[in-house]
Amino acid sequence: MTETVIATEKLTRRLTGEVTVTLVEDATLAVHEGEFVAITGASGSGKSSLLYLLGLLDRPTSGQMWLRGDETSNLDEAALAGLRLTEVGFVFQFHFLLPEFSALENVMLPMQRRDRLPQPEIAVRAAELLDSLGLAGETNKLPRQLSGGQSQRVAIARALANDPLLILADEPTGNLDTLASANVQRILMDLARDYGRAVVVVTHDRDFAKAADRVIVMSDGRIRDA
Amino acid sequence: MIGLASRIALKHLLARRRQSLVSLSGIVLGVAFFLAVSSLMQGSENDFIRRLVDNSPHITIEDEFRNPRMQPVEQLYPLGAIEIRRVKPLTETRGIRGYPQILEGLRTLPALRASPVLAGQALVSFAGKDIAVSLNGMIPAEVNDVSTIQNYMIAGSVDALTVNPDGIILGDALARKLSLALGENVTVTAPTGEVHTFKILGLFHTGRADYDNTQTFADLKRVQALLKRLNRANTIIMKLDDPQRAHAVADEVENRYGYKSVSWQEANEDLMSTLTTRNIIMYTVVSAVLVVAAFGIYNVISTVVLEKQRDIAILKSMGFRARDIRRIFLVQGVLLGLAGSALGLPLGAALMLSLMQIRLKFPGSSDPVPLPIDWNWPQFAIAAAFAMGAALCAGLLPARKAASVQPVDILRGAQ
Predict the structure, then answer these.
(1) Which residue of A has its CA nearest to B324?
(2) Disulfide-capable partner of A212 in A17, A38, B225, B399 (CB 3.0 to 4.6 Å)?
(3) What average pLDDT does chain B have?
(4) What is the ipTM of this complex?
């Protein structure tokens, strides 16, 4: 029996203002260890908003959410940041690497923030992660010196730095060519199948979605098909 | 986390080298200017106080009481409702009663030298000219213990009064006015009508026109006789090894003997408060320079915060807390403050050295003197502390803004 990594119950997120906008409504889902889930839907259907809620970057207006069985709705900002540090790894459409830091330093950042390992061990682990993603020769390069596919792999290495159980990727191949896209797709799927991580990917790519264990289709903020 | 915040902060500043250098140079100049001006002001204040302390008694016991003396019946019934009418003060020769006994008592106190003075008004006459002067009767052997007048002698000496009690010491300005010279005789007339002829045994020049024109010194016994106040002194002047104790010792002496004892601090209260006001004005003006420099830092850090919104969002998505983000941008202020102090203090010291080369001739001073500069470490510490304070304040607002960035708002916009 695989453990449920993240589960939601009637999760809703509304933006209040002159006009109230519903980003996500009554989203109920569960993602388990080793499961690769794709979220698809038209632009503005609430895919990314749901991902930010799952990644504890945003707070739901109503509903409940559990990360590894622990309710997260009532946690304060610092506690949520702590969970993001240890339990969640983000990969975005644009790699979003810090431009002043080398590839190695970008991967080291989450481990340095966690401050659990001594500095030399952090450097060794970061180098191993980059090596495992085929970036052994690129460790000291700055993001501007890397290709799009290489940068996205550095971003994946950074997401894996603190060994999180939940990997959330927002259009990770949306900005890559076919070859790089296939490479990133393979890495993310391996993370779920070979390393038991729960991987949730927001994608427009039908082939990418087809390869997933489960596809969640969203429309107007609601889950239409799961 | 401090190490990580410092590394990120440093990378941010180095990424905007030119802007960082401009704001850094503002702090460097601010610190240097602050240090040079404050050390000059403090140096001149120290010099002023040193002259004040050296040239005037540290404590003066006067022949009066701070509060009217209590009537015996008031002393007997301190809580009684007493009304005394038609009190007529006793007419007696003015002066400190039993001053030799008081002096004996004072001399038992440690690190203190005391000597009696009988000061009064008199007329110095020569060649048909009469000039009113202040005649100070002192014990010649003790003058050098309680006064620095010997340092200002330009002819003769104070010690000559010990050999010739009929001698007098005048300021050179007074002597010039009366066309007198060392060794000549001068007639001194007291308000009592008594007249005595003194021989000029010394001339002094302090540089203070009023003092050089009006002060004269003679033997105590002769002055007592001239003023018809035998065995009286109206002042006891004291010098302490540590002038800063003057206030406390003056209080103790007044409590013990009852006579009004005035420390040099009390006597110059108005001047001291003027110095305080001057310091406030000076620190306000030079701080303004640092405040302007702080705006430069604010500008740099604010720009970095604006430009790094996406990076802040990413850091937050990685698990950096709001306080970690705040720290990164505060550290930027600290780094600029530290670098500004590290470069500004040596530059300030160089400015101080340059100022020391300037020699000015002040009114009343006969020779050009270098500008007084205070080289003590507190000046450096105050300048560095002001710079750090200004830099920290400049970083505070942008740091708070950075900490409040909502990652989702930024990430949504970046899609």
Answers:
(1) A113
(2) A38
(3) 89
(4) 0.91
